[in-house]
Design goal:
The chain has 316 residues and is of the alpha+beta class. It has a single domain, classed as Methenyltetrahydromethanopterin Cyclohydrolase, Chain A, domain 2. Helices cover 35% and strands 24% of the residues. Strands 1-2-8-7-6-5 form a 6-stranded mixed sheet, sandwiched between helices. The protein has a 6-stranded mixed sheet with strand order 3-4-9-10-11-12. The radius of gyration is 18 Å and the shape is globular. The termini are far apart.
Length: 316
C-alpha cells in the first residue's frame, strides 16, 4: 500500500491548527520544534475538535459524522464512521495499541505515526509499508508530552522532531469522548484480528455509536466511552469471504461473546484492579455486528445493544 497515512494526517492536522481558535484547541511547539495540539486538557476543545482528531487518527482514510442514534427507542447523540480502507485506517493507524511510558508520563498512542514505528506485532499481518516525510501521533492523556518524549518518538519514527505532530486529549473531555466512540469500526476489525481472521479481506466498514456524556474524571470517562462501544455500537463490514466462513465466525465477533460482558465497563475494570490486561480481550468489540459477503450478498448478524447498561453507565 503506497498511500502515506502520515502525510494525509499531517494535512488534516495543519487545517486543525489553522482553525485553533474556532475549534478551542491550543497549538504550541516543544524544544526541538515538535508541534503539540491540546484538544481538551487545558482548553475546552469540543465535539468538532474530537471529530477531526478521530479522522486524523485514521490517517485521513475514514470519515466521521455526527448523527442521532436510536437504541431501543431512546435517542442519543452519536456518530457514524465510514472507511473503504478498514485494515489500513483502523488497525494500521487508528488502533490505540502502543502504551507510551516514560518516567512519570503515560499515554495510549494511536494514529499513523505507529505505522512508522511499528511497535506492535500486528503490523506483521497488514500490508503496510509506510513512508512519510512527517509523523503524526495521537495521545489519550491529560498531560502534555515532554520534549524528551517527543525526541524519542521522532527518532523511532525516522523523522526530525520538527516534523512530528502530537495531538492529545483526556478521556474525560468532549474531544476525548468523540475520538473513542469513533473507534467503533476499529474495534470490530481488531476483534476479527484477535480471532485470526485476515482483516485485509474486509472491503469496507460502516459503524454507529452513541456519544457518552462527558465524565467528571478520566477513570469514569474510560468506563463511559467503552460502554458506548461495547453496549451501543453497531458495525457492518463488507467482506471478501464465502458465506460458510462468515456464518462460522459472526457469533464470535460482538462483545457479548466475552464472559466479561454484561456489567458497565467501569465495574469490570475495577474488578480487574484497573489492569486492562486482566480483562478478556474478546470483550472489546461492538454490541452488534453484521458481516456481508461480497461473494453472495448475504448478511450474517450477531449481538444486540444493551440499553440498560448504557443508561446505568451514562447516568453516573
Amino acid at each position: 500500500m503506497t498511500l502515506s497515512l502520515n502525510d494525509r494526517a499531517r494535512e488534516l492536522a495543519d487545517r486543525l491548527a489553522d482553525e485553533a481558535d474556532a475549534l478551542r484547541v491550543a497549538v504550541s511547539a516543544l524544544d526541538g520544534g515538535t508541534r503539540v495540539v491540546d484538544c481538551g486538557s487545558a482548553v475546552p476543545g469540543g465535539l468538532e475538535a474530537g471529530r477531526r482528531f478521530a479522522e486524523i487518527t485514521m490517517g485521513g482514510l475514514g470519515s466521521v459524522a455526527f448523527t442521532p442514534v436510536a437504541l431501543e427507542g431512546r435517542w442519543f447523540p452519536g456518530l457514524t464512521v465510514v472507511t473503504d480502507h478498514p485494515a489500513l485506517a483502523c488497525l494500521g493507524a487508528q488502533y490505540a495499541g502502543w502504551q507510551i511510558k516514560r518516567d512519570d508520563y503515560f499515554a495510549m498512542a494511536s494514529g499513523p505515526g505507529r505505522a512508522l514505528i511499528r511497535a506492535e506485532d500486528l503490523y506483521d499481518d497488514l500490508d503496510v509499508d509506510e513512508r512519510a516525510s512527517a509523523a503524526v501521533l495521537c495521545l489519550e492523556t491529560r498531560d502534555a508530552p515532554p520534549p524528551e518524549l517527543a525526541a524519542d518518538v521522532a527518532e523511532r519514527a525516522g523523522v526530525k522532531p520538527g516534523d512530528l505532530t502530537l495531538l492529545f486529549a483526556p478521556t474525560a473531555s468532549l474531544a476525548g469522548g468523540v475520538q473513542v466512540a469513533a473507534r467503533i469500526v476499529e474495534t470490530a476489525l481488531h476483534k476479527l484480528h484477535e480471532i485470526d481472521f485476515d482483516v485485509r479481506r474486509v472491503v469496507s466498514g460502516y459503524g454507529s455509536c452513541p456519544l457518552p456524556p462527558v465524565a467528571k474524571n478520566d477513570g469514569e470517562g474510560i468506563g463511559r466511552t467503552n460502554d458506548a462501544v461495547l453496549y451501543g455500537g453497531r458495525v457492518e463490514l463488507t467482506v471478501d469471504a464465502p458465506d460458510d466462513e462468515l456464518e462460522a465466525i459472526v457469533e464470535r465477533v460482538p462483545s457479548s461473546a466475552s464472559d466479561d460482558h454484561g456489567e458497565p465497563f467501569g465495574k469490570v475494570l475495577e474488578a480487574a484492579d484497573w489492569d486492562f490486561y486482566k480483562i478478556d480481550p474478546l470483550l472489546f468489540s461492538p454490541a452488534e455486528i453484521r458481516l456481508v459477503s461480497v461473494d453472495s450478498g448475504r448478511s450474517f448478524e450477531a449481538g444486540s445493544v444493551a440499553l440498560d447498561v448504557i443508561e446505568r453507565s451514562f447516568r453516573g
